[in-house]
Amino acid sequence: MSGETEVELHINGQTHRMTVDIRSTLLDLLRERLHMTGTKKGCDHGLCGACTVSLDGERVLSCLTLAASVDGSDVLTIEGIADGVDLHPLQQAFLDCDGFQCGYCTPGQISSAHAMLAEYQRGDLSMATFEGSRADVITGCPRLTAPEIRERMAGNICRCGAYANIADAIESVAGERRP
C-alpha cells in the first residue's frame, strides 16, 4: 500500500492535480508544494487561526486539514481574495483601520473575516446573536455588531493585540454589505 494519493483541488480559481502524501496537510501543500506562502503556519495545532482558508465556502484550519481528504474541493486563500491588483474591500479596510501590527496573523484574519461575512450574509447564527433582543434573533440582525464580530472571529489570535482595529475593519465592510 502506497502512502500517496492523487488529488485535484481548485485553488483560487485554478485547478491543481498532484500526488500527495496521505499525511500531508492542506497548509503544507499550499506552502511547500504550490509556494502560496500567504497562508501562515502559526501554532500547527489549530489554535491560532493563522492558517485559515476557505474550503467550499467554509472556514477551515488548513494545518488540521489533510490534503487527501479535500479532493475535488474549492480552496480560497489570501492570494485569491483580491481581484488582481485591486484589493478586496476587506483588505483595504484592514489598511484603513490599521488592522495589523506585525502582520503575521493578517492573512488568516482576513481569510477568516471574508468567510465569516459570507456566513453572516446567509444567516448563520453565533452565540452573540442570542445575546441581543428577541427581535434581533427573530428578524435577523440588520447589522453585524462588534460583539458579534468578536464572537465569530474568536478562533483567530493576534499576538500584537490589534483586535479593536481588526473588528473596526470588519465592521466597516459589514456596514457596506447590509441586506
Automatic annotation (TrEMBL):
Transmembrane segments: none annotated. Residues 5-81 form the 2Fe-2S ferredoxin-type domain. InterPro entries: 2Fe-2S-bd, 2Fe-2S-bd_dom_sf, 2Fe-2S_ferredoxin-like_sf, 2Fe-2S_ferredoxin-type, 2Fe2S_fd_BS, Aldehyde_Oxdr_Iron-Sulfur, Beta-grasp_dom_sf. Pathway: Alkaloid degradation; nicotine degradation. One of its GO terms (molecular function) is metal ion binding. Keywords: 2Fe-2S, Iron, Iron-sulfur, Metal-binding, Oxidoreductase. The lineage of its organism: Bacteria, Bacillati, Actinomycetota, Actinomycetes, Mycobacteriales. This is Xanthine dehydrogenase YagT iron-sulfur-binding subunit. It comes from Mycolicibacterium fluoranthenivorans. The keyword Transmembrane does not apply. The keyword Plastid does not apply. Gene3D superfamilies: 3.10.20.30, [2Fe-2S]-binding domain.
